[in-house]
Write a structure and sequence with these properties.
CATH architecture of the largest domain in chain B: Orthogonal Bundle
Number of helices of chain B: 10
Mean pLDDT of chain B: 84
Shape of chain B: extended
Number of helices of chain A: 9
Structural class of chain A: alpha/beta
Bound molecules: adenosine-5'-diphosphate, magnesium ion
Strand order of the largest sheet of chain A: 6-7-8-3-9-10
Largest sheet of chain A: 6 strands, mixed
Shape of chain A: globular
CATH topology of the largest domain in chain B: MetI-like fold
Radius of gyration of chain B: 27 Å
Mean pLDDT of chain A: 87
CATH superfamily of the largest domain in chain B: MetI-like
Radius of gyration of chain A: 18 Å
Low-confidence stretches of chain A: none
Oligomer: heterodimer
Order of helices and strands of chain A: EEEHEEHEHHHHEHEHEEH
Helix content of chain B: over 70%
Largest sheet of chain B: none
Chain lengths: 269, 272
């Protein structure tokens, strides 16, 4: 699975939703290849919006985003669509809060979704995957240590295992970037650490750029090289995790911190 | 919790309570309306109570004959009985195969093209609005008397039902897996295949069995207009007033429907 990460650049990016609500305001960011970036902010600050612009799930209104050699433009400029958009997406994996697996089918079938872009339509239709694709999916499962569950139904797995299947699905894409939108928000504390360590290991060993939205500040500090704080769609902090102390977080949140803002049962950062 | 007893729990009455919605008057109005429609319908089809009473004497002798099936007639009904079964099986299989892709085109969840969606839904509503016996009558006129017309009529009938029920299951499905499949760079058809199809397969199988049950019954009725199976036989013996034989056919249909329906509903329970 040798492949290096891609740079992600935001240039004056704004997102206005169809109802007129401004989700992101003039975002400028430069995320170098291979970095692990945590994004923090209150609920509604625009974290999901930010990561979803990177794979075009949320179209940007103005500005530009470049992901490796792909470029996403605001309204009025050439739009990435059809096959070009799918090619970008094939290089960007995404992990969701609620795992987003097809629960009634097997684990391996879920991981094979990561090969959709490369698999011919007739093979996909018949479910006749290439041997290489199956092998790639198996080794992705191996990397998150659940290859033994390959032929089990996804619904029979625990939450933590389901999220690792979802991570394996992104690995099967052989991605340059992995986006994770609150990947541990539905998991208990020990499992949260397992999943975060998986992401960290993937970032370190494969050099994949990882952008992860996190609700818990202690997790964000512990697992990311760099923290970006969002407030009302604007970047209000951008620096090393170690530099983010309580006063920084209070500025990002616009209020004092509570026990709910951290995962640790001690209730401190 | 003895909340009401605790001091300070009860607030001053009459503040900011929602008003109980008055369903009573609506129900009353609905009952009156239904009664009025029923009376209107009765007048419309000219329910003639004295005539019913007069015919009754005739009817009793027929009923007596109907209670005495002619079992000796059984061998002659076998080919028609088998044809009815075959029609139902073939029409269910063909209808299911055509319906599956159409259901994906007819659901908002799986078809992102609004115009195509509206078009498919419009055609499907048309297909469903024609009763099966009418399809049979038209097809007998066009294709000719026999099982082929019956099968074609049942296929159209099945497409109408299966597409509607399966596209509704698709509408109700969680879209998380589909979003994930699209996010990996999959096209809509591919994402629907890997993320949505496995989710609705059990409900699809169950709907197909259900239409099979309907087809067993429907295939006997559409035969009356010449579209093959037991229905043609019914039409023959009835027009010659051979009620003992008619009685046997009705008994056969009863047994067939009961056996197949219970088998099918047993299977369906296993599915979901
Ligand atoms: N499709 C949408 N249409 C309108 N407003 C939206 C839409 N999606 C998100 N928003 C709004 O944009 C803001 C940011 O949302 P989001 O990016 O989901 O925040 P976060 O992930 O930080 O909780 C919220 O106020 C939300 O209500
Ligand atoms: Mg969010």
């Amino acid at each position: 699975m040798e492949r290096t990460g891609a740079d992600i650049r935001f240039h004056d990016v704004s997102v206005t939703y169809p109802n007129g609500f401004t989700g992101l305001k003039d975002i400028n960011l430069n995320i170098p290849a291979g970095e692990m970036v945590g994004i923090v902010g209150l609920s509604g600050a625009g974290k999901s919006t930010l990561v979803r612009t990177i794979n075009g799930l949320v179209p940007i209104t103005s500005g530009q985003i470049t992901v490796g050699e792909h470029q996403l433009n605001g309204r009025g400029s050439a739009q990435l669509r059809g096959r070009e958009l799918r090619e970008l997406r094939s290089n960007v994996g995404m992990v969701f809060q609620s795992f987003n697996l097809a629960k009634r089918t097997t684990v391996i079938n879920n991981v094979l979704m990561g090969r959709l872009y490369h698999s011919p339509a007739w093979r996909t239709l018949l479910g006749a995957w290439r041997d290489d694709d199956v092998e790639l999916a198996m080794s992705a499962l191996e990397r998150v240590e659940i290859v033994s569950k390959a032929y089990e139904k996804a619904s029979s797995l625990s939450g933590g295992q389901q999220q690792r299947v979802a991570i394996a699905r992104t690995l099967a894409q052989r991605p340059m970037v992995i986006l994770a939108d609150e990947p541990v928000a539905s998991l208990d504390p020990p499992t949260s650490h397992v999943v975060m360590r998986d992401l960290q290991r993937i970032n370190a060993e494969l050099g994949i750029t990882v952008v992860v939205n996190l609700h818990f500040l202690d997790l964000a500090r512990r697992y990311s090289d760099r923290l970006i704080g969002l407030r009302s769609g604007e970047v209000v902090f951008d620096g090393a995790g170690a530099d983010a102390d309580e006063s920084v977080f209070e500025n990002i949140y616009g209020r004092s911190l509570t026990a709910e803002d951290v995962l640790s049962s001690k209730g401190t950062l | 919790m003895s909340g009401a007893g605790a001091p300070g729990f009860m607030l001053a009455p009459g503040t900011a309570r929602p008003i109980k919605p008055r369903r009573g008057t609506m129900t009353g109005a609905a009952v009156v309306l239904l009664a009025a429609i029923t009376v209107w319908a009765g007048i419309g089809v000219q329910v003639d109570l004295p005539a019913i009473a007069a015919n009754w004497r005739n009817a009793t002798s027929n009923i007596v004959q109907l209670l005495q099936p002619d079992y000796g007639f059984f061998p002659k009904t076998v080919p028609a009985l088998l044809e009815t079964l075959q029609m139902a099986v073939i029409a269910t299989a063909v209808g299911a195969a055509i319906s599956l892709p159409l259901a994906f085109l007819a659901s908002r969840a799986t078809n992102p093209k609004p115009k195509l969606l509206a078009g498919v839904r419009f055609v499907m509503n048309m297909v469903r609005s024609v009763p099966d016996i009418l399809y049979a009558a038209i097809l007998v006129a066009v294709v000719g008397v026999g099982a082929l017309s019956g099968i074609m009529a049942l296929v159209l009938f099945n497409i109408g039902i299966i597409v509607k029920l399966v596209s509704e299951s698709l509408d109700g499905e969680d879209l998380g897996a589909q979003e994930a499949a699209l996010a990996t760079g999959g096209s809509w058809p591919k994402a629907n295949r890997v993320a949505m199809l496995p989710q609705i397969l059990p409900s699809f199988a169950s709907q197909v069995l259900y239409t099979f049950e309907l087809n067993i019954r429907a295939s006997t009725v559409i035969g009356l207009v010449g579209a093959g199976g037991l229905g043609i036989l019914i039409d023959n013996v009835r027009s010659f007033f051979r009620y003992h034989e008619l009685s046997l056919i009705i008994l056969e249909i009863l047994v067939l429907v009961l056996v197949l329906e219970s088998a099918s509903s047993w299977l369906r329970k296993k599915l979901v």
